[in-house]
């Protein structure tokens, strides 16, 4: 199959920072959950609609009490009805909306965004999985998805507020149009004023979010590099960076809070002014006898709907923009924003289904080939060009070259961990469409230069979910030359490593990664420069054991004589291109670069024509 092309540039990521968000991402997200969203709005409309009815009942109560009653019921019966309506409201509010529908809806939106964003990251070539700092990504996964989830329920509740306010206005207009207008005019003024404040508020929110990400990044770097900071005596520099980043965040946070407060005060003040107008105008109408005590009670009761709706309307723009901004930041985690808002099953109330058991073991490797592999790091001319590989099953191929000659890049492009610009990978003669998902266990495994271990026991780190037997784990430990280290630990394979456990040496980490590879019994084993962390003797023992293991096909980056001697073929790279391929004897005869590299590695004495080196 063809190696993947360079990934599509992300139109979102390319958008200049600080620009207002134009295309809505929230609307498609919410429309995917339309039934639940509409159901939530409907519940709120019902709930607040009951309050409208309560207002009408109050009107009847007061008209009955003041002797202008039209209800045909006693005041006490009406009061009992009001109390029943209130009780029903509280039951629906707490029993249905707050305890069930809202939490489920908000967490489902958050979980779907997180699952989709994580899936999009994991689908990228591994070497480019996350093109931002861990702290920044965590902030997007946490705060930004939270913002979107909260907006979904807040907006449903407040859209219902607006609908009910319209209903209240219609009822009030039917009673007295002039008094009602006393409320409406300040509302219009407020909406216009809120529009004027929206733009600067949006800019402060945007800048505030960026500043918060920067703070998270600095904290993340500091926490991840405590040792490097201490060794380099860089504490003050980091504290200064944190102080600067926090100062920027504080500046924008204060501006945002200030502007939001001004906006809220404006709404509240305007609403209070509207209340005053109602009272003044109602007094005049009451003198004329057109406006009853019950009408006044209804107006005073309904004022809350108008003021709440006015406040909600004003906040709506700000919160909508904030949530859109958060959606954009979550979408930036993926190459394709539609992947982030795709419908995804979330399992908030039940366990997810277990993954399907792996199918039959694929046909064993006979031949792995690569033709014309080419890749460049973005914005540079560095990388690899037109590299061919030919790896028959059961052979050892060593890629060697000077520092920076492209050895690691070649392995990563071959395995699909970095995207290729050009080139083809063939497994048993058949093209591989996506090496990143094909060259994995049980076909291929990889020990990178800097292995990644996780907090947990050594056994968990070796297995990483594989279901190998204890005997298979023990064999993997032996192949990886780890048995003496394990024997020296009280809890053996069950020793916890990581931040809360044992600190391992670089060599131990590398050998645990090698055991992780060995336990998977893959056809192809790929190693990126074990010499980085292993001493000569240990590396020699590891190669001996792996090569004694029948049938392994090995591709290794190395400059060590121990493995160069054992190689069936050596590929020599210079500046990202192959300059020679052959056995050690052939290359020492014909290739000046190989002679230079051989002379440079004097860690293992001996000559090129020696057979197996004796050791142990
Ligand atoms: N992420 C990156 N961005 C830009 N350039 C890079 C990146 N990674 C590597 N390079 C450059 O690409 C070239 C090949 O790097 P690569 O790591 O493949 O070399 P190498 O032969 O494996 O080196 P080493 O022996 O140090 O492991 C080098 O010039 C390196 O500086």
From TrEMBL:
Residues 368-600 form the ABC transporter domain. It is a multi-pass membrane protein. PANTHER family: ABC TRANSPORTER, ATP-BINDING CASSETTE SUB-FAMILY B. PROSITE patterns: ABC_TM1F (PS50929), ABC_TRANSPORTER_2 (PS50893). The keyword Ribonucleoprotein does not apply. Residues 45-322 form the ABC transmembrane type-1 domain. Keywords: ATP-binding, Membrane, Nucleotide-binding, Transmembrane, Transmembrane helix. GO terms for cellular component: plasma membrane. The chain crosses the membrane at residues 37-62, 74-98, 148-171, 177-198, 257-284, 296-318. This is ATP-binding cassette subfamily B protein. It is found in: Cell membrane. The keyword Transmembrane applies. GO terms for molecular function: ABC-type transporter activity; ATP binding; ATP hydrolysis activity.
């Amino acid at each position: 199959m063809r190696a993947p092309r360079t990934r599509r540039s992300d139109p979102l990521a390319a958008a200049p920072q600080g620009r207002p968000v134009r295309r809505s991402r929230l609307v498609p997200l919410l429309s995917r959950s339309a039934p639940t969203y509409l159901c939530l709005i409907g519940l709120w409309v019902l709930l607040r609609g009951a309050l409208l009815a309560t207002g009408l009942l109050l009107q009847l109560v007061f008209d009955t009490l003041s002797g202008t009653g039209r209800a045909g019921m006693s005041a006490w019966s009406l009061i009992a009805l009001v109390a029943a309506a209130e009780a029903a409201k509280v039951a629906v509010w707490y029993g249905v909306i707050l305890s069930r529908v809202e939490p489920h809806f908000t967490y489902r939106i958050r979980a779907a965004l997180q699952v989709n964003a994580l899936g999009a990251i994991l689908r990228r070539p591994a070497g480019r999985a996350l093109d931002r700092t861990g702290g920044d990504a965590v902030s997007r996964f946490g705060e930004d998805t939270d913002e979107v989830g909260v907006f979904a329920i807040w907006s449903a509740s407040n859209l219902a507020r607006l609908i009910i306010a319209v209903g209240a206005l219609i009822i009030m207009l039917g009673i007295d149009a002039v008094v009602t207008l006393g409320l409406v005019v300040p509302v219009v003024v407020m909406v216009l004023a809120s529009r004027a404040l929206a733009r600067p508020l949006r800019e402060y929110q945007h800048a505030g979010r960026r500043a918060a990400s920067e703070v998270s990044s600095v904290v993340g770097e500091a926490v991840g590099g405590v040792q490097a900071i201490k060794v380099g005596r860089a504490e003050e520099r980091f504290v200064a960076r944190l102080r600067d980043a926090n100062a920027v965040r504080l500046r924008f946070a204060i501006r945002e809070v200030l502007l939001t407060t001004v906006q809220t005060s404006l709404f509240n003040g305007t609403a209070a002014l509207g209340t005053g107008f109602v009272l003044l105008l109602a007094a005049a109408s009451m003198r004329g006898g057109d406006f009853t005590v019950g009408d006044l009670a209804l107006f005073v009761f309904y004022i809350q709907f108008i003021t709440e709706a006015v406040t909600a309307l004003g906040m709506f723009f700000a919160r909508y923009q904030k949530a859109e901004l958060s959606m954009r930041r979550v979408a930036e985690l993926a190459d394709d924003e539609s992947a982030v808002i795709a419908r995804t099953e979330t399992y908030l109330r039940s366990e997810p289904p277990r993954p399907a058991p792996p199918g039959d073991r694929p046909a064993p490797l006979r031949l792995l080939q690569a033709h014309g592999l080419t890749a460049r790091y973005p914005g540079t001319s560095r990388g690899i060009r037109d590299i061919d590989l030919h790896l028959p099953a059961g052979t050892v191929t060593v890629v060697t070259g000077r520092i920076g000659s492209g050895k690691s890049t070649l392995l990563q492009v071959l395995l699909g961990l970095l995207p290729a610009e050009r080139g083809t990978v063939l497994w048993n003669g058949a093209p591989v469409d996506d090496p990143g998902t094909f060259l994995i266990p049980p076909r291929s495994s990889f020990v990178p230069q800097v292995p990644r271990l996780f907090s947990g026991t050594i056994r968990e780190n070796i297995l990483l979910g594989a279901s190998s037997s204890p005997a298979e784990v023990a064999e993997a430990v032996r192949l990886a030359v780890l048995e003496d280290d394990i024997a020296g630990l009280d809890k053996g394979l069950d020793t916890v490593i990581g931040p809360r456990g044992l600190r391992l040496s670089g060599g131990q980490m590398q050998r645990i990664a090698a055991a992780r590879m060995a336990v998977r019994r893959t056809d192809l084993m790929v190693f990126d420069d074990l010499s980085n962390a292993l001493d000569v003797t240990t590396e020699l023992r590891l190669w001996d054991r792996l090569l004694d293991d029948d049938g392994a096909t090995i591709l290794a980056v190395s400059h060590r004589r121990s493995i160069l001697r054992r190689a069936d073929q050596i590929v020599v790279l210079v500046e990202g291109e192959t300059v020679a391929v052959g056995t050690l004897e052939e290359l020492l005869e014909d290739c000046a670069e190989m002679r230079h590299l051989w002379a440079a590695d004097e860690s293992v004495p001996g000559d090129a024509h020696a057979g197996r080196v004796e050791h142990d």
